[in-house]
Structure formats: C-alpha cells, structure tokens
Amino acid sequence: MKYLLLALIAFITIISGCGKGIEPEPEEVSEGFGGTVYFIGEWPDSITRTHIVVFKSPLLSEADFNAFNLAYVSTEIPYGTAQFNYSSLDSSLFPINSKISSGTYYYVSVAQQKTVNLTLNRSDWFVAGVYYNQGDTLIPGTLVIPEGGFTGNVNIYSDFNNPPPQPPGGNE
Fold it and tell me: All domains of the chain, ordered by start, with CATH?
C-alpha cells in the first residue's frame, strides 16, 4: 500500500508538471514594416540627412508635422545611396521605444534636411519620396501593421528629378 501511494503521488506530479511536453515555446512575433527605398537621379549636394519618417495622421496642415504625430524615424540613410533596404525592427533612430506597433499610419515618406542641425521645424524638411498603395501616386498610401504582424514591401521611390507634392509648410 505504501508503494502504491508513492507511485500515485509520483504519477500525479509527473502529469501535472508536464504542461505541453517538449512542445516549443511560442515564437515571439515582432510588429513592424519594411521595404526598399529606390533613389532615382543625382542627389543634391545640399542634403545633410535623409530618413524614413512615419506619421500617425495625415499631414493636412503645417501643425500636423509635430513630435506627437511622429510614429517612426529611421536611422540616417547614407548620402548618395541608390537603393536602401530597411526594416523598422532594426533601423530606428531612437533606440528607446523604437518599436512601431500595430495600427494604421497615414503618411510614410523619405524626408530630407538641408540644415546643419537636426530640427523638428517643418520648414527645414522636404519630402523626397512618398509611399503609395498599389501604384496610386495621387494620394499617400496607408500603412497597416496587423497585430503581431509584419508588413513588407513598403517601397518608396525617391525621384530627385520629379519630387512628390510637399505637405503643407514645406519649402520645396
């Protein structure tokens, strides 16, 4: 009887401690987006920095260009680059709180600056390329990042000979 009781306790311990056996832990999925920026034409000599910039809301007025509306800023794209592959998972300018989360974003662009100091003044920046959905080059595309998912092929064409329309408040 004593051995039967010990065997029963051992059996219950094994069963309750097993969980899902040797099943692997669920893979952590990182939310984000990525793609390629294609630069067409000669880079202007006056460029001091170039970044991929994502805004939460459309840029309908100069006031929409602000730090609270910014969702993501990439690391600097090297001057003179012809093609730049990127992923928000590893190319954020701000390492703290650098992950862009699931949601809908209304303005994705390549923004350039000509001033020496990095600023958030709208007049210091101009848009060199805009992300468009499905080839529609009239209205900036909407970036949708699903919960727990990654959105690829967020490709942007930056044509220095034919720049896109500038959002309100720009100089170019």
Answer: 30-159 (2.60.40)
